[in-house]
Amino acid sequence: MQYNKQNKRAPILIVDDEPEMRFALTATLEEEGYRVLSAPNGEAALKICMARSNKDPFSALITDMKMPGMSGIDLIQQIKKRWADMPIILMSAFGSVESAVDAMKLGIFDYMVKPFSEKTLRDTLYEALHKKPTEGKIRRSGNKQLVTEDLGMKKMLKMAEVVAASQATVLIQAESGTGKELLARFIHDHSPRAHRPFVAINCAAVPESLLESELFGYEKGAFTGAATKKAGRFELAQMGTLLLDEVSEMQFSLQAKLLRVLQEREVDVLGGKGTLSVDIRVIATTNRPLLEEVKAGRFREDLYYRLNVFPLRIPPLRDRIADIPALVQHFILSGAEKNGKRVNAISKEALAILMSMPWPGNVRELENIIERAVLLAESEQIDKDHLLFPENEPIRQESAPTTITTVWEAERKLILETLTQVSGNRTHAARMLGISIRTLRNKLREYHKLDPDCETANTESK
After folding, report:
1. What angle do CA 251, 313, 253 make, to 5 degrees?
2. Residue 345 in 3-state DSSP?
3. Listing from the earlier edge strand, what are the strands of the sheet with 281-286?
4. 3-state SS of the chain: helix, strand, coil percent to 5?
5. If you average pLDDT over residues 244-273, what whole number do you get?
6. Which residues of 110-121 are buried (b: 16+ CB within 10 A; e: fewer)?
7. Would 12-130 and 153-313 be classified into the same CATH topology?
8. 364-402 pLDDT, tens digit each
9. Architecture of domain 12-130
10. What sequence ranges are listed for the domain Response regulatory (predicted)?
């Protein structure tokens, strides 16, 4: 049975065994103008769906994971058999994060970790009703998405979800443009503090003379020019999350004061007579190898270990080229929507060029190039002539460089590199490349016939 996405009058179905939760979700969505039906368990939900099978289908299903009798996972499997395109949002408790990630493989649109805010509910449902789900994509609840097909990135995101449920301080180390702040927000949105403030400060962007007052705040008259009291970022983030972006740029003298706040959970407000107790989650990011900064004497060792309770590293884009096709498609669609264009695809030749670049600016650079290409494209497809790179940016050379002179060679290089990224798994590679398994097999036989030494092409099907 085909689900009709265009039926805007179809209601939302909420499934949860807790009456209070059903009432709260229903009230929130009805205030937004949605029609809502609810069910106390999976069996009842399935009966409602079957009863409406010849009437209006549901616009979306929002279900809890753990319920008596039929679980949320079982319900999802039954729904997907009958209405494969119906957007499904799974609600998960913190102890069920692993199962929630597994549920993504069943084709759910997203999941929300309890407790979540009304805004998270509204935003997630809006996206489910207006955007096409992408299999394998792990997303945060909110406007931006963490898009990945890379196995290493997926493993890192699972670790981020695990630590999100705790109160541990997190240190994110990665190059500029990889999405450090996006990962920090991902952690916040999947934490018990998701409904509390997320406050960020870029330690590199604030002048040294102002950073202390920005962090800790000040009382009226604390110094010349302090005409009114100002709350610092620690105070503004009370009960929520504080992101210390590029913490390695903080001057050495201020690091000692930051260390004291992390140890004592108290802030000395400039000009104040006492201390302010704070209850916050701290996430720090840096684009430098922080341990090297410690060895060089530019960063306090004790502060490093205080921040490095749970380290996360985002690999640079050049080390996860398997993500490029998914990222490109995501940026094409978002750029087209932003600029009122009809672009929705990219040629194989253009994609092969993107796969060969070193990407010193990482994902941010790729996003900029795709947005420029979207603006230049006159049809629905981006071609290689639409890709504008800085004049001094070289195309990546492999250890045994080969010059790509034809579309066939570019296609071969793309297929073999994709297979390498997924450890030879042809099913995953075919999905990423947007081709069938049969087409991929035929291509590999062709490459092996022309080059018997092609090991990747000769790998047994997995």
Report:
1. 10
2. strand
3. 198-202, 241-245, 281-286, 170-173, 310-313
4. 45, 15, 40
5. 91
6. bbbbeebeeebb
7. yes
8. 999 999 999 999 999 999 999 999 887 645 444 443 444
9. 3-Layer(aba) Sandwich (3.40)
10. 11-129
Cα–Cα separations (whole angstroms), residue 438 to 48, 342, 352, 408, 430: 40, 31, 21, 18, 9
Which H/E stretch holds residue 283? strand 281-286
219: Cβ–Cβ under 8 A, 6 or more apart, which residues? 226, 229, 269, 270, 271, 272
**374: its two tokens:** 């979207």
CATH number of 153-313: 3.40.50.300
β pairing state of 198-202 and 217-218: unpaired
Alpha helices, DSSP H, located in 52-170 = 72-82, 97-104, 118-130, 151-164
Question: With pLDDT > 70 as the criterion, what percentage of the chain qualifies?
Answer: 83
pLDDT score of 245:
95
DSSP state, 83? Answer: -
| pLDDT score, position 426 | 83
pLDDT tens column, 312-329: 999 999 988 888 998 999
CATH architecture of the domain formed by 404-462: Orthogonal Bundle (1.10)
| Region 407-428 average pLDDT | 77
Q: Residue 154 has which token pair? A: 């997926």
1 near 82, Cβ under 8 Å? yes
The two tokens of residue 462 are 């997995």
Residue 110's closest CA among 161, 167, 56, 170? 161
Q: What is the mean pLDDT of the chain?
A: 82
Check residue 397 and give its pLDDT.
41
Report the run of H or E that residue 375 belongs to, with start and end.
helix 362-376
Count H helices and E strands in the chain, helices first.
18, 16
User: pLDDT confidence of 413, banded at 50, 70, 90?
Assistant: confident
Domain boundaries, the chain: 12-130, 153-313, 316-396, 404-462
Distance between CA atoms of 250 and 207, rounded to whole angstroms?
10
Please give the average per-residue pLDDT across 87-100, as a whole number.
Answer: 66
Contact 177, 361 (CB under 8 A): yes
Nearest to 94 by CA among 122, 121, 70, 115: 115
Q: Which residue has the tokens 């407790």?
A: 115
